[in-house]
Each structure stands twice: as structure tokens, then as C-alpha cells.
Specification:
Blueprint lengths: L4 H12 L3 H8 L3 H8 L10 H8 L3 H5 L6 H17 L5 H18 L4 H18 L11 H21 L3 H17 L3 H9 L10 H13 L1 H33 L3 H18 L8 H21 L3 H16 L5 H18 L4
């Protein structure tokens, strides 16, 4: 760990999953103050060190660079390393999801105050619930009690996090994941309760928009450009998430092949247009969006019985990816992800 305070603040903030604006909200300071700390253009007042360390979940020694990792960070790193190993095993996706959730169930029981691990657990159980859903994949028809036990445990711990954690980002992520568990468990009333407390983009009165304007009026356009870049990445991630939902459901459930393909093409076009500025997107999310939309287009073709069309589109997509301004590693990653989806879901279409 660097002994530079500004770099430590930035590192621990990102480890916590907080934006500069969210950290500023927790400390009742401006986002510009946090930006100055991290860029070394200013230092927090001594009176801010303890609240800052508490908000970031580290000791003041760690924040100042006197110890490399806090005890909780070592715990989180160890658990996440084990989770990564479980996910890279040769098991099927559903079995990996089950083993990860059961492992995290144990770890969160042993470490009930570690909110980041609780959030990981609830999110992984939400992922498991997709595989267990009888309407979707129905991977565990003979293990209902085992799955239900995980649902109850994850929801209970998620509600505890929501009630006791001060990290707004973790609370929202947990509400989101708990809602998914309830949806796949067909408990729609409880799902709706968690959905209704999440922030909505419908009003267009979002803090990111106003914070950009605040920066402009306070510090000028040149400083605002940094906010624009950061918010462009956030917006791209949101757009990809929404378009993935559109394409996924049209691909799987729309009975009109042409309509499904039209929606998938539209989604693909938006993602590609957005990626015209590679510096304003998360490349990892771009690659996954390209692969997922392509896969749902293949699903629409296969489910309509157009095997030749699916085969032709696969070749066209692979050729298009090879022609994009991507590294060889990125090109190979897209095709690898697509092939993995095809292998896993071929039994359904």
C-alpha cells in the first residue's frame, strides 16, 4: 500500500465500491473536496481522518499507510480468492453457483459484521436463484429444501445489512439482490417492497447530472470534463444493463422471430454507437454486452427453428468482432464468452 494519503483514499474508496460523490455524502463534504484529496491538490483536515477511515472501513493507520491491509480487508481478500477458485472449477455453472453460495453462507455466519461479504453472499444467492427457478433452468428439482435454506439465510442477512450498514451503495446492491431472490422464489409482494425503495431514473433528477453542473459553476468546464467522463462510464453501464434485459427477454420469449431480431439489432446498434469513444466506456462491460446481445439473437433464431440462420449469424458476428478496434485478447474473450453461453444453454434451444 502506498504511504501517500491521497492514493490510499482513492484505493480504499474503490475497494469499498464508492464513487467520489457517495464518499462525499457520507462525510458531508463536497465531491470536489474528495477529488482534491485523491489528486493530492489538498489534504483532509485532521478532524476528518477518523470519519474518513470509518466510512472506508479501514483503520486510520491503514489510511495513513502505516499498515498494508486491515484485518477485515485480509478476510475479504481471502474469501474472494476462494470464491474465484470455486468459480474457475470444472463444475457446471449451476453447481458452481450452489457451492459459492454455501461457502459464503458459512463465512458470513462466522463474520456477521462484514457487510461486504454479506453483500457478496446475497448477490451470489440471487445468481443461484436464476438456476434454481423452475420457470427458467430448474437445475435443482430434487434439492428444494437445500435451496430454500440458502434463500432464507441470504435474505435474513441481507435485511440485517440493510438495517445496520451505513454504506448506501451496499444497501442498494443488497435490496436489488434480495428482490431477485424473491422474484425467482415467486414471492412477488416482498420483491416489490425491495424494488420500491431503490432509486429510479424516471424523474431524471439524478445527483450525477446536478453534480456535473455544480462542478461547472464552481470550478469551470475543464474540471467538469472529468465528471463528464466518469458519468459517461456509469451511464454506459446502465444502458448495457437495460439493453441486456430487453434483448434477453425478446430473445427467449418473443414468438415473432422478426420482432425479436429487430429489438436485438437495435440494442446492438446502441451499444456499438456508445462505444465509439472507448475512453468513455467500461471495456469489460462492452465485451460482455456485445456477447450477450449476440447470444440472445442466436436464441431467437434457434427457438424459431432457423438453425441455418443461427449458424450464419454466428459466422457474421465472429467476423465483425475480428474487424473491431479491439486487442486480440479482447476479441478472443468475446468469442469465448459466447461459446460458453452456447454450450451451457444449448439444451434449452
Amino acid at each position: 500500500m502506498s504511504t501517500t494519503l491521497g492514493k490510499n483514499i482513492k484505493t480504499y474508496r474503490k475497494n469499498k465500491g464508492l464513487t467520489q460523490e457517495e464518499l462525499a455524502d457520507l462525510l458531508n463534504v463536497t465531491p470536489q473536496a474528495v477529488s482534491k484529496w485523491e489528486s493530492e491538490n489538498g489534504l483532509p483536515d485532521v478532524s476528518m481522518l477518523i470519519p474518513l477511515a470509518q466510512a472506508l472501513g479501514v483503520s486510520t493507520d491503514a489510511l495513513l499507510g502505516y499498515d498494508s491491509l486491515s484485518e477485515q480487508e485480509e478476510l475479504i481478500a481471502r474469501v474472494r480468492e476462494t470464491v474465484a477458485a470455486l468459480k474457475s472449477s470444472g463444475d457446471t455453472r449451476d453447481q458452481k453457483a450452489l457451492r459459492v453460495s454455501e461457502y459464503l453462507s458459512t463465512e458470513t455466519s462466522l463474520n456477521p459484521g462484514c457487510f461486504e461479504l454479506i453483500n457478496d453472499y446475497v448477490q451470489e444467492t440471487a445468481n443461484l436463484s436464476m438456476y434454481a427457478d423452475p420457470v427458467l433452468e430448474n437445475c435443482f428439482p430434487d434439492e428444494e429444501d437445500r435451496i430454500k435454506k440458502l434463500y432464507r439465510d441470504a435474505i435474513r442477512k441481507g435485511v440485517y445489512l440493510i438495517s445496520h450498514c451505513s454504506d448506501k451503495s451496499l444497501i442498494e446492491k443488497t435490496h436489488f439482490a434480495v428482490a431477485w431472490i424473491y422474484i425467482h422464489d415467486k414471492d412477488f409482494d416482498n420483491a416489490r417492497e425491495h424494488i420500491n425503495v431503490l432509486p429510479s431514473i424516471a424523474s431524471n433528477r439524478i445527483k450525477e447530472k446536478l453534480n456535473m453542473e455544480l462542478t461547472f459553476f464552481e470550478s469551470g468546464f475543464e474540471n467538469m470534463k472529468g465528471d463528464i467522463k466518469e458519468n459517461a462510464v456509469i451511464l454506459f453501464d446502465l444502458v448495457c444493463s437495460m439493453l441486456n434485459t430487453f434483448a434477453e427477454n425478446y430473445g427467449w420469449w418473443c414468438k415473432d422471430k422478426d420482432e425479436a431480431l429487430e429489438i436485438c439489432d437495435w440494442c446492438e446498434g446502441i451499444v456499438k454507437a456508445f462505444a465509439g469513444r472507448k475512453d468513455l466506456i467500461n471495456m469489460h462491460h462492452y465485451l460482455r454486452a456485445r456477447r450477450s446481445i449476440a447470444f440472445f439473437k442466436l436464441v431467437a433464431l434457434k427457438k424459431s427453428g432457423d438453425d441455418k440462420g443461427a449458424e450464419a449469424y454466428y459466422g457474421e458476428f465472429a467476423k465483425a468482432i475480428k474487424g473491431e478496434d479491439l486487442t486480440d485478447e479482447e476479441k478472443n474473450k468475446v468469442i469465448e464468452l459466447l461459446n460458453n453461453d452456447i454450450a451451457h444453454y444449448s439444451k434449452y434451444c
